[in-house]
Amino acid sequence: MAADKIKTCEELADIIEKEKAAGKTAGFTNGCFDILHLGHIKYLNDAKKECDILVIGVNSDGSVRRLKGDERPINPQQARLEVLAALESVDYITIFDEDTPLELIKSLTPDVLFKGGDWREEDIVGGDHVKASGGKVRVIPYLGGYSTTELIQRIKKMRSQ
């Protein structure tokens, strides 16, 4: 069931430790995932091809507001979690309230840390921790033309016409 994919950080740390002990590769990515679009789907599918377990850290509503402004998120955190949980490529999801996922990454210590191509590897939060632990950072090519912010702007423009 999709709801079984939603875990606390503590639950995930235990799961990942056991899975890694069994020889599986744990991957991690994070984001707001406010309005799921094709760019997200391709990104998550590509990440899943490179790991056995794909974990997503999702910004809480408060975190999204601090990062994106008072009009965001469009979708509340529980809805965002459930939509992501419905995806086949996603194994587990957790929420974090901080502005960055650094503490979550330190708790989980994934084998691979994924971010989209709009990030430079040296700017990826938690990358140093993952590499110091023997893991790697992987930047997945960005699919142009798909952005939640751009999508919201297009909708606003259409409504004002």
Describe the secondary structure blueprint for this structure.
Blueprint: H1 9-21, E1 26-31, H2 38-48, E2 53-59, H3 61-68, H4 77-85, E3 92-96, H5 102-108, E4 112-116, H6 127-132, E5 136-140, H7 148-160
Parallel strand pairs: 1-2, 1-4, 2-3, 4-5
Description:
The protein is an alpha/beta fold and 161 residues long. The chain has one domain: HUPs (Rossmann fold). 42% of the residues lie in helices and 17% in strands. It has helices at residues 9-21, 38-48, 61-68, 77-85, 102-108, 127-132, 148-160; strands at residues 26-31, 53-59, 92-96, 112-116, 136-140. The protein has a 5-stranded parallel sheet. The model has no long low-confidence stretch (mean pLDDT 93).
Task: Please give a handful of descriptors for the protein shown.
161 residues, Rossmann fold, 7 helices, 5 strands
